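// run 5 | inverse folding | seed 20
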């Protein structure tokens, strides 16, 4: 004669099995949709690739890199005469007060040192977003330097690190134009062009 467990025990077993199935399904769904990696890993991978001069590895971390991505970085490195680029103090923090339904967004801050004839250090920043279950750098020219706007590699004509009278240095962007060529909007402050030209001409060791 078959022996059946009490009804309350059968109900408990059924409930436990159902809960286990639900939890297992929930875990599987979470593991399948969660964003891989982290904003910190993406920022670090991108910036360390820049430090190595590994442009393909940099682009792998970027969402929709521009077609002239390589040219822009080459122009910046050559213009600043940087023999070595060092990235330090990488810090990542989430965007404050994210709106409902808005893509997860993080911001990274870092320090860049250009080691060349005139050493120069400045602070940079970039934005990281969650796109298709991966953290990607939302790239713009300001990732290279905060004063750069929307530009192409052909517009980065001359970039120099210029020593200052107080012993510090600054990065200046000199725009050269062919006869009849329209001036591009490379600088937010037109006075920076004049200051750059004057600083450049006042330093015999810095060529224009």
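// decoded
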């Amino acid at each position: 004669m078959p022996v059946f467990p009490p009804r309350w025990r059968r109900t408990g077993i059924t409930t436990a099995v159902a809960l286990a199935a639900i939890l297992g399904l929930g875990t599987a769904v979470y593991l399948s949709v969660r964003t891989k990696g982290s904003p910190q890993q993406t920022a670090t991978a991108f910036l360390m690739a820049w430090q190595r001069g590994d442009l393909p590895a940099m682009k792998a971390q970027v969402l929709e890199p521009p077609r002239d991505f390589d040219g822009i970085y080459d122009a910046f490195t050559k213009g600043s005469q940087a023999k070595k680029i060092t990235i330090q103090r990488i810090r990542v923090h989430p965007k404050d007060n994210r709106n409902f339904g808005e893509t997860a967004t993080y911001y990274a801050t870092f320090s860049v040192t250009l080691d060349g004839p005139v050493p120069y250090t400045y602070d940079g920043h970039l934005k990281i977003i969650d796109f298709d279950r991966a953290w990607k750098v939302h790239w713009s020219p300001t990732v290279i330097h905060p004063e750069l706007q929307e530009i192409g590699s052909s517009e980065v004509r001359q970039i120099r690190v210029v020593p200052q009278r107080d012993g510090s240095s600054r990065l200046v962007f000199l725009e050269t134009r062919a006869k009849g060529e329209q001036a591009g909007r490379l600088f937010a402050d037109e006075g920076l062009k004049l200051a750059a030209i004057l600083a450049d001409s006042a330093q015999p060791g810095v060529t224009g």
